[in-house]
Write a structure and sequence with these properties.
alpha/beta, Rossmann fold, binds NADP nicotinamide-adenine-dinucleotide phosphate
Length: 241
């Protein structure tokens, strides 16, 4: 069990959706949360709520570097790579925009790797530390319409698995969180059943406290089970979307 009281958490994308809920829940458990975001208004709102904030666009290397510069020598116990974005990349609909594609790949994959690389030395100095990478059920099996988004999440899942093996036996645990479809600005344009972000955040924080390796949130449990029985079937089901 990891006691979150007094822990310092760096949480990317803490101004909206699942991240904003994780920020509130971590604070309620006595953690000191430093959160990052991009848009000024939600950042100001978070500051009013008592959070320390860092403004950073994570679509290029400058974002992670600005976060590390703003932290100075401050100790960090928990790094949560939650910020993520989608991008239109469906050749059946339009020619993809390459700049937007690169920005998505950088934010979803390169920035977590960069933050881990820059912050691991200070995580290693703590008595008990954790890295949380938020991927997606789509990291298990991709859909058809979001080729680049799915690829970034599958890559971050793969990276998390290698990193966990590298850090086995150290003070740093690696948790991969795989949310299902959650009701946030990211999924605003789609219908269907969506998990409330509070509940998704609750399950991730719970897994963090328990020192788990992976948390399959909500319907991702079913996808994971199907995939373990038949990867081909899981792929076939998900590629219908
Ligand atoms: N919602 C879902 O159904 C779902 C499902 C599976 C996985 N996930 C993953 O869960 C995580 C959180 O998703 P969410 O639905 O809560 O998203 P969200 O509501 O859109 O919030 C995303 C957060 O990340 C920040 N962010 C996004 N792109 C950024 C960038 N390039 N640079 C800096 N900050 C950036 C946003 O800040 P600004 O608003 O200021 O840009 C915001 O704080 C993501 O990694 C997402 O891929 C979500």
């Amino acid at each position: 069990m990891m006691d979150l009281t007094g822990k310092t958490v760096l949480l990317t994308g803490g101004t909206a959706g699942i991240g904003a809920q994780m920020a509130q829940q971590l604070k309620a458990k006595g953690a000191q949360v430093v959160l990052t975001g991009r848009s000024p208004e939600p950042l100001a709102h978070a500051r009013k709520d008592g959070f320390e904030t860092i403004a950073a666009n994570l679509s290029d290397p400058a974002g992670a570097d600005a976060i590390v510069a703003a932290l100075g020598a401050r100790p960090i116990d928990i790094l949560i790579n939650n910020a993520g974005q989608g991008v239109d990349h469906d050749f059946r609909e339009s020619v993809p925009d390459l700049a937007a594609t690169d920005a998505c790949i950088y934010a979803n994959l390169n920035t977590p790797i960069r933050l881990i690389t820059l912050l691991l030395p200070r995580l290693r100095e703590r008595s008990a530390a954790a890295i949380v990478n938020v991927t997606s059920g789509l990291a298990i099996a991709p859909n058809t319409g979001s080729a680049v988004y799915c690829a970034t999440k599958a890559a971050l899942r793969s990276y998390s698995q290698s990193l966990r093996a590298q850090l086995a036996g150290t003070n740093v645990t690696v948790l991969e969180a795989l949310p299902p479809v959650v009701e946030t600005q990211m999924t605003a344009s789609r219908g269907g059943n969506k998990m409330p972000p509070e509940e998704c955040a609750r399950q991730i924080i719970d897994a963090l406290e328990q020192g788990r390796d992976q948390v399959n949130v909500g319907m991702v449990k079913v996808l994971s089970l199907v995939h373990s029985l038949s990867p081909g079937l899981a792929r076939k089901i998900m590629l219908r979307f």
